[in-house]
Design brief:
The protein is about 50% helix and about 20% strand. By secondary structure, it is of the alpha+beta class.
Length: about 625
Amino acid sequence: MELKKVNQIKLLFDSEQPWRRWVRPVTLALSAVLLLTALCLPDHRLWLCLIAWSAAIWEVIWGALAEIIDKKPTARTAVALAGIIALSTGYMLESVLMLIILAAGFWFKRHFAASLLEEAEYYEALGGLRARVRTGDRLAAVPVAQLAAGAQIEVYSGEIFPADGIVLSGEGSVDYSNFVHHHRTVPFAKDSRVYCGGVNHGQTVSVKVVAAGPQCLAQKIHALSQTALTRPAAMQKLFARFLPFVRIAWLVLAVIVGLFVPLFGALPWTTALYRGAGILMLSAFTDIAETIRLLFFVALTALCREGVLVQNCRQLMLLRRITDMIFSKTGILTQRTFIVDEVVPHNEYTKEQLLYYAACGEQISNHLIAKAIVREAGVVDLPKPEHQMEIPGEGVCAVVDGQRIFVGNDLLMTRAGIQVLPYHGQGMICFVGVEDTYIGCVILHDPLKNTSTETTNGLFALGLHSLDLITGDKKHNAENVGATLGLHRVFAQLDVAGKEQAVARNARKGRHGSYIAYVGDDVDKGCLQAADISFSMKTLEDDIGGTTADIMVLSDDPIGVLHSFILSYKLHRHMIVIPAVTAGLKVLLTILLLVGWMPLWVIALAETALRIFALCMANTCRHFKK
């Protein structure tokens, strides 16, 4: 059959077709009414049961045909065969009741699963948006897939931004609550960056497109979450490997009980076929694999909405084996917004002169401390350095107006041969030297993020043994942060190589079944690679491609780390409980079928209860409660 015809048939059997939405409940209601009527009218029971059976099995047969077309005959195919066998044995009432229960269960499962997947549908819907492209004085509606970088579009109040871009005119606020929960409402004005998926709450906005379609941030995030699903965890692979053999064993048992046992006179044919139909119904173990995949889908989507992107499912599951964690300090547990607390000049220099020289040197650096000093100096036109060099973990050197300027920590001052005066106060110390003269220091502080304490307390509550801090900051500053958050160890005054060695020395690489995690940013690539599991803190403005981290936290908020751990523990617990409960109940029902008579409607009720139980467990993965 041609591929086009196959696709048309699949579309016909698609349970989301609009015309089927009202047919399902109507047929189920009709079956239930006819069954009750048959109980009240014994003289007309036969034909009433046949009509009720036909109406009830319609839903099951329809789904079974769809499974056969997809070459994946599973639950509905087994139920359809069991229903036909049960009817042929003369158990009409039981057969009809069984089919009504199972059809209602399948219908409920479809709607419940759809509600679990609705969060992911938002990203899918973004691909169907249209944008108003301005060409001269005219506006034209263009699909987002046809938008090119540099195009000018207009977004009215209350509408979704269809692409990433720069605001050319207009102001207001953009609501990202349907995009990532941690950025609910952000103000914007001219030259602000806006992202596809946010809702415009303000006046009409003119936007210059930077990225559209698959290249916009929202679609990149969605693509990464979908890619993670294609990289299963070890337990997923285990279930995928062994569940088919278990299902085959149940099918073989059903054939033996239904066809071979009567040949030896052990059971009448009707009883044997009835029991075989019940065992056939219990053979649908493939539902476990589907439920586990749904668990990961819901968990990854929930993390995606929190701005947490996981590279693959295995890394998410490994989080439950983490015993120790090392946090970088600056910008991870702190707000990444340095504030100048004090300017301490020396050698008859004024505060203004000290800030001027410090800003002249720091203007070449993108470090957060450098930006804070330049901002505090307030000089608009700083002279460009004739020569410049930035030494990671130490500071910057620059030649400005023929003078050598050194701005950094005591390691840089020692390298430059400049004798500094000790400072015993609190805060980050940035020494400044001109030529071989020490001219003073700038004291800054970086306040803790609002959720840092909640994150560390939550990780301790989950049972992690040790939370440590690593930083290039002064020891007393790092110890103050560690004491505030209740951390165990502090590794301070380390350069880049020292940080890598500290992480590598503590990483166990799976020894004794324990792992270590590192939380930092992409600047610490060596630390990210040395840890067993690494978290990279990013913002929406950062590039999410090419990172060496296993998990990215786009919210730039450590609470995303805690949420990742919570879902990892939930997934592991659910992946044990759901198969155990399912297998245990199926074995019990099978034994009861073999040793005595068990109504098929009881098995149908148990199967439906198992599906509802699994869906309720999956629903808990949408939330981040322990």
